[in-house]
């Protein structure tokens, strides 16, 4: 997974970096899904790199929610 691309896309997906709206959550989920669909497999270590690089502009609760979304997407993909 290209963490730079994911980082930039997540910054576009989340409109307000202090709180995450349900539509933002859908965009984030779609971002992770699209990377997997293209064959760019990711692990939670890579997701953590993205979370760390989001910096202080994003609240901890938003980072946690993005991490949870990535985790759920990975679990769903692992089931197949």
What are the key terms here?
80 residues, 0% strand, globular
What does this structure look like?
With 80 residues, the chain is mostly helical. The protein has helices spanning 3-13, 22-37, 44-54, 60-79. It has one domain. It has four helices and no strands.
Helix content: over 70%
Number of domains: 1
> Any low-confidence stretches, pLDDT <50, length ≥5?
none
Number of helices: 4
Task: Characterize the main sheet.
Answer: none
Summarize this, please?
With 80 residues, this protein is mainly α. The protein is built from 4 helices and no strands.
What is this structure's SSE topology?
Elements: H1 3-13, H2 22-37, H3 44-54, H4 60-79
